[in-house]
Known about the structure:
The structure holds two protein chains of two kinds. Chain A is mainly α. Chain A has helices at about 1-10, 10-30, 35-60, 65-95. The mean pLDDT of chain A is about 90. Chain B is globular. Chain B has a domain at about 285-465. Chain B is mostly helical. The chains are: A mainly alpha, B mainly alpha.
Amino acid sequence: MENILQEIGIDNYIYLSALLFCVGAFGVLYRRNAIVMFMSIEIMLNAVNLLLVAFSTYHQDAAGQVFVFFSMAVAAAEVAVGLAILVAVYRNISNIDIDNLKKLKG
Amino acid sequence: MNTLIAIAGLGIVCLIAEIFNLRKAIVPVTIIGLMAILGLTVNDYFGLGLDSANTERTEAFYNNMIVNNSYAMAFTGLFIVLTIFLVALTPEFHKNHKAKLSDFVAIKLFLLAGAVAMVSFGNLAMFFLGIEVLSIALYVLAASEPKNIKSNEAGMKYFLMGAFASGILLFGIALIYGATGSFDNTAIYAAVLTGNLPGWFFMGIVMLSIGLLFKIAAVPFHFWAPDVYQGSPALTTATMSTLAKVAAMAAFFKLMSNLNHTVPGAYITIIIIVSILSMTVGNLMALKQDSVKRMLAFSGISHAGFMLMVFLNPMVMKGVLLYYAAAYALAGIAAFAVILYVTSGKENEDVYQFNGLGKTNPLMAAVLTCSLLSMAGIPIFSGFFGKFFLFENVLENGFVYVVIAGVINSIISVGYYFKLILAMYNKDATGEAVKVPVSYSIVAVAAILLNLAIGLYPDAVLHLIK
C-alpha cells in the first residue's frame, strides 16, 4: 500500500475526495428528489471516508480507519431516520419532491 | 464518564419499563434518576479540585476519549437541569399518545447523552459521535407527528440540512486528522503549537466551523431554523432552542479554544461578522413574525450571535458563555412551558392566541413576561447580567463596534418581545380560559425562579469554570 500511496501522492487523494465531496454537495443543492438528495449526502460522507483512509495510510496510523467505522455506522443510522421521515412524507403527499414541502413560511 | 454511562443507561431503562407495563413510573423515575445523575456530576465536579500548581485538574478516561474538567462538568450540569424540565413537560404534551411516552422520554435522554459527549470529549471521534447522537435524536423528535404534514416538512428539512452540515463537519475533521495525524485533542494542540501545519489544517477548521455554525443556526447558515422551529411539535422546538443550541455552542467553543491557538486575526474578523449579522438579521426578521415559535426561532438566531461574542476573548469568557447560556436556556424553558399551555389543542401559534392571558391566567402571563424580559435583557433578570458581562468583557478587549451593534440589537429585540406582552395584557381574551396543567405551571415557575436566582447571585454560575 505504501508504495502505491507514494507513487500517486497524498495530494491526489485529497483532490479526488474533494471532487467527490463537491459532487455530493451540488447534488444536495440542485436535485429535488429526496432520494437522490439522500444519495448525494451519502456520496459526501463516503468522500470523507476515502480521505480518512488515505490519511490513515499516509500517517501509518490506524485511528483514521477506526474513525471510518464510526462514520459508517452514523451514516447508516442517519439514513434509517431519513428514510423513515421520507416514508411519512410520502404517505401524506404521495410524492417525494422536496419542492412540494412549502407549508412553512413566514 | 459515569455521567454519560448513567444517562444512556437511564434511557435504556425507560425503553424497558414500557415492556414491563410500568408506563406510569417512567417520568418520575427518569426525573429522579436525572437528579441523581446531577448529584453525581456535582460530586465529580468538586472531586476535581486543584492540583499543586493551582491549575485545574482534569481526569481522562478511555485513552483520553472523555476528559472531565470544570468546563465539561459545569455544562453537563446545565444540560441535565434543562433535560429535567423538558422531561417533566413530556407526559402532559403527549397525553394523547400515551403509548409513545417511553420513546419520547428515552429519545430526550439519548439526546442528553449526545450533548454531554459534545462538551466532555477528548477526542474528535467522541465529539463527532456526540453531535450525531444529538442530531439524530432531534431529527426523530422534529418529525415525531407522522400524520402532520408540517412536522414532516420540519423533520425533512432538518434532516437534509443537518446531514449536509454533518458531511461538511466530517470533512473538516478528516482534514484536521490529515494535517496533525491524530484525533486526540492534546495531540492536535501540541501539533498546532509547533506551527508547522499544511494548509489543509486551516481548511479543516473552516469546514468544522461551518458545520457547527449550521448547528447553532448563525447567519448565514440559519435559513433552516425558522421553518424547522415552526413545523416541529412545540416541545421539540423547546428542546432545539434551549438544549440543542446551548450544547452546540458549548462544543463549538471548546473545540475552537482547543484548535485555534494560532489563528487569530482573520478568524476573529469572520466571527465578528457572523456575530453581528446573526444579531441583526435575527432581530429584524423576528419583528415581522406572527407565529410565536417562528419569532423565538429568530430570537434564538440573534442569541447565537450574542453568544458568538465569547470568541473574542476565549480565555476569560468561558464563565460568561456558561452564564449567558444558562440565562437564555432557562428563560426559553419558562417561555415554552407557557406557550405549550396556550397553544395546546390550537391550530397555530400566532400571537393572537395569547390575547388576554393576563386576565385569564395571571400567573402564566407573568412567567411569560418575565422570561421575555430576561431574553430582551431587562435588569434583575439574568438575561440582563449575561449581556452585561458579555459586553463588559468584549469592551475590555477593544471591540467597541461589536458592543454598539449588540446594544442596538437588544433595543430592537424589545420591540417583538413586547408585541407578545402587549397582546397578553392589553387585548381581550378570545376563547375560554383553560385550566393550566400542574406540570406546566411547576416547570414554568421553577425555570423562571432559577433564572431570577442566577440573576441575583451571578457569581455562583460565573466562576464555576476555572
